[in-house]
Amino acid sequence: MSKEISYQSLEKTCHELIKNQIIPILQSNYKKLYESAKEKGDDFFLSNDTAAQFKEDGKGLVSDGEIEAERVFRQHFKKAYPEIAIFGEECGDENKAPWILVIDPVDGTSAMIENSREHNPALGFGITLGFIHENNFVGGLIYELNVDKNGNLKLGNIWSAWEGQGTYKNKQPQYIQDSDQLTALISTAPEVMFTSERQRSAFHSVELNASKVITGRNCMGFMDIINNEGYCALEADLSIHDAAALIPIIKEAGGIISDLNGNEIKFEDAHQEFRLLCAPKTLHKKVFERFSAALNDKLLVIAQNSVLNKEKTLNTSKFNNE
Fold first, then answer.
1. Dist CA 237 CA 319 (whole Å)
2. Residue 215: CB partners within 8 Å, gap ≥ 6?
3. 97 versus 318: which is more confidently predicted?
4. CA angle 128, 89, 152 (to 5 degrees)
5. I need a labelling partner for 149 at 20 to 30 A (CA). Which of 15, 33, 164, 266 fits?
């Protein structure tokens, strides 16, 4: 690590920017979403003055406040660290550099918008910041966002992790307890993440062995693994903006996070796709073996009540390319 940049200074700068600059923007943004949803109902996306819209590529949603939040964060962060390249979910990716900050101003935009239309505390979303140094995922910060029934958004728990320094939630050390029991399978939108017959069959093989399946949690689903025994996440079609903060936080908490071939995740470029399996060490091995075997076995008949047959909603539209 260079003398000019320290993990401590990076975290301090980010915390200050999030609390003083970004949260107020997102609070105002959410209030607008809430009021627009209340006024327009099912016509929410038919009005030109709605504070959210589908992206130009048709693969996701974005709210006006997220674009503004990322723009403001980048502007202030660059003043402190001009040498750090920024990859942003909403405002684009700069050229690769030795140090890279990856930002998603709201990981789980669809869940946030769903909440503004109909309050559902089971959905999860938050701000994610990931740090890459010399092609290694070295740091992650995740800021939980909570909302109430009256359209108020607040900052919730804060997770942080740096290479070799452990994982913390609200400054308290966090550890993933080992387990061989699949208590819960987490997948934000499996019905659109796993689309081929082989992928669906392999996912369903794991699903059948889980006590329950949890969807719609986005980055918060991975944080659920830290404090809940026997939780496992299985996701695909993720971007660098989705994954960069998750990898160091899970690793530093003692969990295993790999690609779906069981390999360690390496940074390549801003455009790579991430397919993640994340779990406690023993459970990771067990789920990986089951998933891998099912990819080559006879195709399973997908049960009617499988989450793979879930009706597509706003919370899955980021993965739709129709």
1. 8
2. 186, 187, 188, 189, 190, 307, 310, 315
3. 97
4. 55
5. 15
Tokens encoding 27: 């609070």
71: containing domain:
7-174
Token readout for 68 is: 């503004």
pLDDT at 219 over 80: yes
Rounded to 5°, the CA angle 221-278-297 comes to: 115
- Show the DSSP H helices in the chain as ranges: 7-17, 23-40, 64-80, 109-117, 190-193, 197-207, 219-227, 240-243, 246-252, 281-296
226/57: higher pLDDT: 226
Alpha helices in 41-140 (DSSP H): 64-80, 109-117
pLDDT above 70: percentage of residues in the chain: 92
> Is 261 domain-assigned?
yes
- Report how far residue 225's alpha carbon sits from residue 221's, in angstroms, rounded to the nearest whole number: 7
Residues 193 and 286 placed together within one structural domain of the fold = yes
How far, in whole angstroms, is CA 197 from its chain's centroid?
A: 25
Please determine, for residue 312, whether its predicted confidence score (pLDDT) is greater than 90. no
**Does the structure show a pLDDT above 70 at 193?**
yes
Contact between 191 and 75 under an 8 Å Cβ cutoff? The reply is no
pLDDT in tens, 120-162: 999 999 999 999 999 999 999 999 999 999 999 999 999 999 9
- The CA-atom distances, in angstroms, between 119 and each of 36, 218, 303 are 14, 17, 29
pLDDT at res. 264: 96
> Are 292 and 165 members of one domain?
no
Exposure of 2 in the CB half-sphere (CA atoms within 13 A): 10
Q: How many domains, in total, are found in the chain? A: 2
Q: Are residues 131 and 86 in the same domain?
A: yes
Q: What is the pTM of this model?
A: 0.94
Q: Taking 50 as the threshold, does the pLDDT of residue 318 lie above it? A: no
> 156 and 260 in one domain?
no
For residue 72, give the DSSP letter.
H
The count of C-alpha atoms lying within 13 angstroms of the C-alpha of 127, restricted to the half-sphere facing its C-beta, is 30
